[in-house]
Amino acid sequence: MQRTDINFILQEDEQELKFKEPGKKRSKFFLFLVIFIVLFLSGLIARTVISSSTNNPNDYDPITLEPKQPEGIFQRLKYFVFSKEVKLVGVKNDRVNILLLGMGGLGHDGPFLTDTMIIASFKPSTGEVAMISIPRDLGIYIKGEGWWKINHANHFGELQKANWGGAFATEVVSETFNIDIPYYVRLDFKAFEEVIDEVGGLKVNVENSFTDNQYPAPNDLYKTISFKQGIVEMDGETALEYSRSRHGNNEEGSDFARARRQQQVILALKEKVFSFSTLANPLKIYNIITTLDKHITTNMQFADIVTFMKIIKEDLDTKNIKTFVLDNSTDGYLENTVGENGAYMLQPKTGNFDEINNLIANIFNAETQQPQIISAAQESPTYYGDATIEIQNGTWVAGMAARIESRLEKKGFNIGELGNTEERPYLLSGIYIIGNYTKTDTANALKEELGISIRKPPNSLTFASSSDILIILGTDFEE
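The line above is the sequence of Cell envelope-related transcriptional attenuator domain-containing protein; the predicted structure tokens follow.
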């Protein structure tokens, strides 16, 4: 065994070395300080990385939609200490608002005029959801543009800057209804179709059978579409037709009826997505968004979308979904009016938006909205056959044909084309049965409703080939 000698008597140089020992402690202190700073900075970097990496679909558990925890002790330590949970704007105030916009898109007439505008609200504490549909013909003031139908807001935003329409429309809606809307999602027709096809189609409960023989077709033509009452399986194209149709018979020929069908489709899509966990998979969502990048515009980050879906998945009360359509029914909040250029518009009955804003602000307050939430329903009008009615204005009174269209649609008539007579003024009003249509019940009902005589059509009449009955409003007609 090797022997080790220990000298307990310190030499002078050794004493000096021993005297400097506290310096070593200071060195160790600074060393630990440097290590701490490095770790802290690493944590900050990790925090940034983790926060941004939440936009990566692979960072989420496909079942729970929770961010995956990193592997390794050091990585987990950084995750728990420095990770930041994504908070949706509005959760703190117990209401998250999203504006849903639907438009035709490039290749369609009026590509950036919105056909769909819905304020979707979610109340995290109760799981309640509300959808408020805003009619496209609602007249509002748009800063810098003047008075326009609200469906022009997206269009004006696009004129300012490409893909700015959704943000601008959200700003306009927020100001009009005095509500904070931090998020928006805008889809065109192609995105609408493909999203529904991607989830394997939908089952929708068609409440009323109806036929629309003026559904837009390519090359400025029309085609006929029909839906029968009951549960109907729809692919993307069929669901789009169901959601867009606005010239159907049997109470389905108005913008308000269309808005209710759009809400139906959205709820059916929600049911389909959350009934199969694979459809709510972050990777699946990411692929859809990426594939339809040019057809979907939103200010929501991918992390926001996953967080919102997680909240909906866990807390949504499917039995407590409120739907509301702003309309011009007897109990509704709106009435018909005519814009400065003679165009048909809707305006608040009270002359301002105070009552409507109060409804929207208190949509989750059952006591406040209970008497009004059913305002969408009107007395069921009598259906007068399948005749398509054309209205021509033979006077210089702007907007008369549009006002009569609205009046007749409420009574159950199927209105097709609107326009002016080739020559004006037209002295005598008349109801004309034209083409191969022979039934008289609809014409007689129109005579009783409008106080206009049924006349024999002269050879000089011009009308659309799809029309069965022509109404000419002459200078003798009194609204």
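Note on the example: The longest strand covers residues 114-123. The CA atoms of residues 141 and 147 lie 4 Å apart.
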